[in-house]
What does this fold into?
Amino acid sequence: MSNTTFGPEEIRQIIRLLSKDYASFAVLRDSVAELESSQPERSPATNVRLGVCMYILGRNIRSIDVLSNADGGALAHFYLGKANYALNRFDKAIEGYQAAQTAGYNRDDCQLAIVEALRAANRYDVAMKQLDDLFGPIEQTADYLYQRGATVAALGGNPSEVVALYERAVESDSTHAGALFGLALENDRRGNDEEALGYYQKAAACFPTHVGTLLNLGILSEDRGEYERAAHCYSRILDAYPNEPRASMFLKDAQASSDMFYDEEAQKKRDRIAQVLSIPVTDFELSVRSRNCLQKMGIQTLGDLSRCSEQELLSSKNFGETSLVEIREMLNSKGLELGQFSSDKGQPEPTIEVAGLSPDEQALLDRPISELNLSVRARKCMVRLGISTIGELVRRTGDELLECKNFGVTSLNEVREKLTASNLKLRGD
It folds into this structure.
């Protein structure tokens, strides 16, 4: 923030320092506040450095005000574009980038920034055409590869091509925030939590703060029981964007969860038992008679068997003592017994009264849960509960959903709001 040279290289130095040590964020924030208050009549050159640093801190509206009173140079125009982009003012962002290029800012950086703004404005074809018009060394840069991958994804292209472009971008620049976030998101969608976590962590080290990266990293951390780390992610968002509603709600949930006792060993034991109970009976070498009888009774897994009594099996036609002994031995090999979980027999799945629903509402019940566009946290809970359609969701009560790990009141309210928008509600509401 001193009166020495201030340009792209100095900005990169500031960002590298913030990425290396987050404590520097507070130092930069204090320096910006000091400069802003101590020099009410600032020179245009001072306004450039102040406006750029405000953008890095996430103070985009104030950044635009300050940069609009700067020296009118290339750097000021470029960061006017970036601050407007951060506020979803995409036409204004493009104007800023075009003015920056005219004023002498790096042409490739301006062109790729314009592509990003075009894509964010849903002008995918125009963005792709502009990428196709770029030739030469720029095609091997991390930013070009990322912008092309993101544009291909927006156009509904081959996911493998998208991932390959992101990976090439990261090979070219291991700190490219966009490419790291893209790879994290692709792995997150495929359920590759470990890979997604690694990419989110790398992307989170980049500045300015990316809300989506930190939200998703926080949610993954909560899934792993790392509530303090999750709270840190949400706090980082609030440092830059104090009024971000999701971060504020998620922070409260994470702080509340960190105070709850969680018996990890007991959970591991339950997970192991659940894994054994899910083993299909077809994995064992049974006699033809036993196999046919189990099939007629609809018994498919060891869990189904452990919920049956000896009398229930013997009541089946052609199922005798020999078959019973065979079944006992099979269960004993896995540490189970007949009737061991007979008390866990599920109640009949609640039905939905469809008489009062319109044909469109009835069809809605068969649609995938993804059509509700739930948050990452709520989606993961749906997966844990085995809920894949909207109909399966509305058969659940609010209390049943709250029993799922990391599904709190915030997520429950979100689900209720989404269902209400479709004239539906949870059972018991």
Remarks:
- The first helix runs from residue 8 to 20.
